Amino acid sequence: MPFPIHRPRRLRSNPVLRDMVRENHLSPADLIYPLFVIFGKKVKNEISSMPGCFQMSVDNIVKEAQAAYKLGIPAIILFGIPEHKDASASEAYSPKGVVQQAIKAIKDKVPELMVITDVCLCEYTDHGHCGVIKKGKILNDPTLELLAKEALSHARAGADMVGPSDMMDGRVAVIRETLDANGYDEIPIMSYAAKYSSAFYGPFREAAESTPSFGDRRSYQMDPANRREALKEVALDIEEGADIVMVKPAMSYMDIISDVKETFDLPVAAYNVSGEYSMIKAAAQLGWIDETKVMMELLISFKRAGADMILTYHAVEAAKELNK
Ligand code: PBG
Fold it and tell me: Is residue 165 in contact with ligand 1, taking CB distance under 6 Å?
């Protein structure tokens, strides 16, 4: 008869005990802060579907990066909004690209902050897809070369880590090979390994101006109905040389985070995506939820599921809360 011998409530009776038996912890050191960089000076455009997030010019990005670092956030990930989009995504790998400029400026002012870059073409192509298009088809192999050029140009600008998010087959191998051949063998790859074709990316596409002009991303991003396939994707990226593997989105995909953590021994990143952020902001604005509590509960649940690090637009707010 477990009861009355076993009373789980004994260990919940006061805050000291609860602290002592807590299984998971969240710290600002777990957080990676995504930032959107745009050409211009003193630009700070709020993204209407992501209150508290902005498209910022390099000068303002540097300030934001500095502030994040002061709060104990170790890393940011940069997304760029180019001046001109074209079929070959040329600004993605231009040395004068907006991300390349931002990397230099940030590393100059806050050298200790880890600068990760998102490696993808969708922000830079005129059609908004993540790859090269021919006859309405998104081509895999011709895209790889452009992704490798983009990753290399980020490394040359001073990026500390690259994060391919395109979901083309074989891109981790090609990026690894290209970085190594150019003397960047120490730059790690954080691959968006299990990235689903998700409606939760909606607000991001407003932020990054990257909505596909036709069709959707289902021929390259994963089907939300699939679980085992995530392990296949992650295994392939690891074989190709990924150093950190990501699951994205995070909230509706905690089973995948958990599977990946159980199956592999690499660090796991979870991307708490734009739509997840926006839903919390919207419900909070309506007064329906306690924003801070819901945010902190969500973030700890990613840790509980197995995430070693969390990419989140809540990073600054969460770090402030954790530093209280
Ligand atoms: C680029 C990319 C996307 C996100 C991160 N990198 C958009 C997409 O795949 O459509 C989404 C991030 C978010 O929603 O917060 N491919």
Answer: yes
78 - beta bridge partners? Answer: 35, 117
Adjacent-strand bridge partners of 161:
116
Q: What is the CATH number of domain 27-35+66-322?
A: 3.20.20.70
Core vs surface per residue 114-142: b (16+ CB within 10 A) or e: bbbbbbbbbbbbebbbbbbbeeeebebee
* Domain segments of the chain as ranges: 27-35+66-322
Q: CB of 98 within 8 A of CB of 141?
A: no
Segment 143-169, tens digit of pLDDT: 999 999 999 999 999 999 999 999 999
Kindly state the tokens that stand for 72: 């104990």
Q: Is the CB of 259 under 6 A from ligand 1?
A: no
Percent of the chain with pLDDT strictly greater than 90:
98
pLDDT tens, residue by residue, 81-139 = 999 999 999 999 999 999 999 999 999 999 999 999 999 999 999 999 999 999 999 99
Q: Which atom of ligand 1 is nearest to the CA of 221?
A: 9
8 Cα: distance to centroid of ligand 1 (angstroms): 42
Ligand 1 atom nearest the C-alpha of 212 is: 10
Q: Which residue has the higher pLDDT, 210 or 256?
A: 256
If you measure from the C-alpha of residue 76 to the centroid of ligand 1, how many angstroms do you get, rounded to a whole number?
15
Does ligand 1 come within 6 angstroms of the Cβ of 150?
no
List the catalytic residues. 195, 248
CA distances from 314 to 35, 55, 257, 290, 295 (A): 11, 16, 19, 14, 8
d(CA 104, CA 102): 5
Q: Is the CB of 78 under 6 A from ligand 1?
A: no
d(CA 81, CA 98) in angstroms, rounded, equals 7
